Amino acid sequence: MTAPARITYREATKQGIREALLADPRVFLMGEDVGKYGGCFAVSKGLLDEFGEERIRDTPLSESAFVGAGIGAALGGLRPVVEVMTVNFSLLALDQIVNTAATLCHMSGGQFPVPVVIRMATGAGRQLAAQHSHSLEAWYASVPGLRVVEPATIDDARGMLRAALASPDPVIVFEPISLYNMEGDLTAAAENVQLEGARVHRAGSSVTLVTYGASLWRCVAAAEVLARDGIDAEIVDLRSLRPLDDATVLDSVRKTRRVVIVDEGWRTCSLAAEIGQRIVEQGFYDLDAPIARVCTEEVPIPYPKHLEDAALPGPERIVSTVRRLLGHAD
Amino acid sequence: MSGLPGGFTRERGLHLLREMLRIREFEDRCAELYGAGHIRGFLHLCDGEEAIAVGVMQVLGPDDALVSTYREHGHALARGIAMGPLLAELYGKRAGCSGGRGGSMHVFDAATRFYGGNAIVGGGLPLAVGLGLAEKLRGTRNVSACFFGEGAVAEGEFHESMNLAALWRLPVLFICENNLYAMGTALARSESQTDIRSKAAAYDVRAAAVDGMDVLAVEQAARDAVEHARAGRGPVLLEMRTYRLRAHSMFDAQLYRDKAEVEEWRKRGPLTTLTARLKSAGLLTEDDFQALLREADAEVAAAVEFATAADWEPVADLARHVYAEAVTA
What we know:
The complex is a heterodimer of chains A (330) and B (329). Chain A has 330 residues and is α/β, with parallel strands linked by helices. Helix content of chain A is 37%, strand content 21%. Chain A has 13 helices and 14 strands. Chain A starts with a strand and ends in a 5-residue tail after the last helix. Chain B contains ten helices and nine strands. Chain B has helices spanning 10-35, 50-57, 73-79, 83-91, 124-138, 156-167, 215-230, 259-267, 270-280, 286-309, and strands at residues 65-69, 108-109, 114-118, 144-149, 172-178, 181-182, 185-186, 206-211, 236-241. In chain B, strand 6 (181-182) and strand 7 form a beta hairpin. The mean pLDDT of chain B is 95. The A-B interface holds A 28, 54, 57, 59-60, 62, 64-78, 80, 95-96, 99-100, 104-113, 115, 144-145, 147, 168-169 and B 65, 67, 96-102, 106, 108-110, 115-118, 120, 123, 125-135, 137-138, 144, 156-157, 160-161, 163-164, 167-168, 320-325.
């Protein structure tokens, strides 16, 4: 057996795009600086040379037009991968995503599904301040007609794009900015990666940590600290934010009977709120303690590192929340 | 306005008149059906603008793609969407061309590549750019055409889409129906430069201003534009100067314009002028006109019958089509 390949999240994402371009001539990538520049986060570096300008298309700074053009190209029989630099800029294309991509299949009575994939970087952690650090996954995840995923692992970074392109529906793929440099092992074959379904990232018995995206690794760090105290945390990586996989979450909650939801979104109207409510609706009597949430503080993300760290749902806050939930003194 | 192009036949004249009459009679009936409560929601009628829909459709092929707005009944009929399913859509019936889920503002039809019925002003333009991109990348000679009102020119999506289509030399026809009012806001109250055609120059897009009340002028301009786009020479903006003879929607008291202005434009209506021209050229008699009118009214009556008899979609199907359904062989 050969040793697993150790690569970065960035490289895994690029491999996913490259494999999609090789596998299907209908696939093309477009977005700001994806070509000559090589991608704002260097995800598409080298792809222009390999695939040419027709399939690696630099766009003007016109989020609404090029996202809409991606929707139109999907309607016209292609399989566009549209890169919006970050979720912050995607707000300029919100009309096309929410009013068009999400509605056309339904409004047309099923005649016009929209198989477009829209990738965007998300999240904080790189001192980029309030306009470059949003986590707005919950906004998109609230819209029927969209599918929303967030790969948090190396395997998912490579494999979920393929699964997204196989879907006949519009899929938003969130890529956490803080994970691009993360290294890990590529273990699963891309064709075995599913678009839907949560995954138990770490099995445990004392408490369930439900999370997604970059917060997966905050939970992993917290679980290591908790383990030293004999607290055995189970971590559920949601992977898909719409649809949500209630069954995997509930199975874990029934096992551990305690749950902390860790979400980089703001607490108010967050995915954490939605998940918590689903647990209450379906597993209230399985709980031994109130559901707890660790979310981003309700402030625009500040620039200085110590304040940014304080705003985010870091491992220390997760650890102290779990301890409090289990009745341990800090 | 006077005279007809050489080689213009009676058959051709009757065809254009028939197509415009079908739209006018349909729209008039829709207004009644709205009053009677059969059509609900927002209803935007296109009386006065028929020549644009009919003229443009004469030069588009079956494989070309179309994107329209919420004032799209005329485009749909001229494109060949059958009147029965169109009216059934306005009723919200399952037999409607969008399965009843869209209504008046969201007419869709895969068979004729009619991509809506988009009710966000300017929202359809990027779609048309993408459809044009798909044709270009697939190596076809098809074009995409999008209709929009002059109100959309104030939207960022107009400017972004013009730039993108020109930058990539895409086969896109931008057809602006300039009826002088964005809902109730007159053009001069919303645009610093009211010459819409001139905006194309900033994007190096070929453009023409056309008398949108003259179906022959529309057809000729559209023919030139389609030829340009099909040849791979890039997009074209056509500013069709027209007028909406009815209110913006059924809720509009029209406080923003004079009745005299409407009456002045009515004299220049596309049906009135084509009828007069055909008659004066000896290509149309009053009997011919009455026969066309009866024909159109019969089609409308059959459509009403179809829509009335059609079924409602069962509530159990409410959540269908939010996502694509698996294709079963």
